[in-house]
From TrEMBL:
<keyword id="KW-0808">Transferase</keyword>
<dbReference type="Pfam" id="PF00348">
    <property type="entry name" value="polyprenyl_synt"/>
</dbReference>
<dbReference type="InterPro" id="IPR008949">
    <property type="entry name" value="Isoprenoid_synthase_dom_sf"/>
</dbReference>
<keyword id="KW-0479">Metal-binding</keyword>
<keyword id="KW-0414">Isoprene biosynthesis</keyword>
<dbReference type="InterPro" id="IPR000092">
    <property type="entry name" value="Polyprenyl_synt"/>
</dbReference>
<dbReference type="InterPro" id="IPR033749">
    <property type="entry name" value="Polyprenyl_synt_CS"/>
</dbReference>
<protein>
    <submittedName>
        <fullName>Polyprenyl synthetase family protein</fullName>
    </submittedName>
</protein>
<dbReference type="InterPro" id="IPR053378">
    <property type="entry name" value="Prenyl_diphosphate_synthase"/>
</dbReference>
<comment type="similarity">
    <text>Belongs to the FPP/GGPP synthase family.</text>
</comment>
<keyword id="KW-0460">Magnesium</keyword>
């Protein structure tokens, strides 16, 4: 392993551990000021889908992009926790019968299977909402303008022009609303999957009150990493197995989804990933060796097995 790869693995594991602990605290049954009560079933469902699993790649990107600018880890972890709440909410809703109708997530029953549809919908709603409670907290940054920019960026990554918009384009491409609609796979990826990954990367630039050049570098890196992540996901759906993935393989084909693999073929998709790694590496050149861990993150995304 290279120094960057070894350090990456260590830091990824540490961020996962720290994020787990922080989420467990944030999603406890103890109420915050202005809250009345946290219903036991709702909190349990939120915790079921948020704790005890996942690589925490999105919080990791927030923490490591912030580290480039010397931002306190505690601040970046809060941003990462907000981002992870959005991600976990999206998985809950994506698994519902009305969406992808999945029974398995991270090697265990999806939330609507473990509980019921109504609880799953409300747990997703609550995770989405608490994310914006977290991202606005004073502990993240003393400058309210920085917190405002983070909040706006997270909302746009999550909403109609980002993840949620991408989800409906995906469903339209399956023919859920009539005839199958043409799918621009690159745009769909940028919205459904890439927008939250990109936010993790630009969050550090916002926290660090970076120069425009530095912001653009992390933006370019985040877009390349996000696309590489989706292509790797599409390849895993074709070449992976359910035991390694922790969810059913072949789900995209079963739903008739248009993916990078269906458009580029397996060899073409793999070449595209290689090109994206080069693009991510070039984007980070402005940071010198401060970008080594992020470089390793891009390689990890491209080569992952689950």
């Amino acid at each position: 392993m290279t120094t960057g790869t070894a350090e990456f693995s260590k830091r990824l594991d540490q961020t996962a551990e720290d994020t787990e602990a922080l989420l467990a605290k944030l999603l406890s049954d103890a109420t915050e000021s202005d809250e009345i009560v946290r219903p036991k079933r709702l909190i349990e469902a939120m915790r079921y889908s948020s704790l005890g699993g996942g690589k925490r790649l999105r919080p990791f990107l927030a923490v490591e992009s912030a580290a480039v600018f010397g931002i306190p880890r505690e601040s970046a972890l809060l941003v990462g926790a907000a981002l992870e709440c959005i991600h976990c909410y999206s998985l809950i809703h994506d698994d519902l019968p009305a969406m992808d109708n999945s029974d398995l997530r991270r090697g265990r029953s999806t939330l609507h299977k473990a509980y019921d549809d109504a609880t799953a919908i409300l747990a997703g709603d609550a995770l989405l909402t608490i994310a914006f409670d977290i991202i606005t907290r004073d502990a993240i940054h003393k400058d309210a303008q920085v917190r405002l920019l983070l909040t706006r960026a997270l909302a746009r990554a999550s909403g109609v022009g980002g993840m949620a918009g991408g989800q409906i384009l995906d469903l339209a491409g399956e023919g859920r609303f009539g005839d199958r609609e043409p799918v621009d796979v690159a745009r769909l990826q940028q919205m459904k999957t890439g927008a939250l990954l990109r936010f993790g990367c630009i969050a550090g630039a916002i926290l660090g009150q970076s120069s425009q050049k530095e912001y653009q570098a992390l933006d370019d890196y985040g877009k390349a990493l996000g696309e590489a992540f989706q292509i790797a996901d599409d390849l895993l759906d074709v070449e992976g197995d359910a035991a390694a993935l922790g969810k059913p393989a072949g789900a995209d084909a079963a739903l008739g989804k248009t993916t990078f693999v269906t458009q580029l073929g397996i060899d073409g998709a793999k070449q595209r990933v290689s090109d994206l790694l080069a693009r991510a590496d070039a984007a980070l050149s402005v940071f010198g060796n401060r970008g080594d861990v992020l470089r390793a993150a891009a390689r990890f995304v491209a080569e992952r097995k689950n």
